[in-house]
Amino acid sequence: MPDEIADAKRALRAELRERRQLLSQHARDAAAAAIAQRLDALVDELGVRSMSCFLSTTTEPGTRDFVDAAVRRGIRVLLPVTRADGLLDWSVATPDLDIAEGLHGLPEPVGELLGPIAVNDVDLLVIPAAAVDRSGMRLGWGRGYFDKTIGSMEGCPPVYAVVYDSELLDEVPRDVHDQPVTGVVTPTQTLRLAPARR
């Protein structure tokens, strides 16, 4: 990766991380409730029976209420579990979900692990992001887990990134391995940005 792209990504991530840390608990709670409603509507619109989602950290736009509600509705939700080799294992969310700190300090499910290819059967991927631009390019947090996952899937289903409204940008720095997303879900809108790859 050229140094200027890496530097631009690092600087933007630092700015976005700081902005997230400054959000009040009230703003985070309101965002989580709105995102749960938007994801619920997206699942209905796409007729999703099986999907992947992530367990949000305290500063990320909240997804946990949505995951709980989706499981109660009978949707099969796969949650990512990080591996040292840069791939993701998957675990099925359950109503009594046990959560522990994962490899990079992220919240991850405790339970039976399914291999990396388990995600190939889902109807929708909902993934984290630091920011997304209007062409669908996603800026992740720099470890490449989701870029590798998306890039390796044949017949990839729609991929939606969850961000705060201020993180939908005109442009993000990009490199050759970066994978675009189909759309973005924020507390105030669900936008389709790029065609699904199926």
Automatic annotation (TrEMBL):
Its EC number is 6.3.3.2. The lineage of its organism: Bacteria, Bacillati, Actinomycetota, Actinomycetes, Micrococcales. It is an enzyme of class 6 (ligase). Its cofactor is Mg(2+). SUPFAM superfamilies: NagB/RpiA/CoA transferase-like. Belongs to the 5-formyltetrahydrofolate cyclo-ligase family. It comes from Microbacterium lacus. This is 5-formyltetrahydrofolate cyclo-ligase. InterPro entries: FTHF_cligase, FTHF_cligase-like_sf, NagB/RpiA_transferase-like. It catalyses: (6S)-5-formyl-5,6,7,8-tetrahydrofolate + ATP = (6R)-5,10-methenyltetrahydrofolate + ADP + phosphate. Keywords: ATP-binding, Magnesium, Metal-binding, Nucleotide-binding. It comes from the Bacteria. The keyword Magnesium applies. Signal peptide: none annotated.
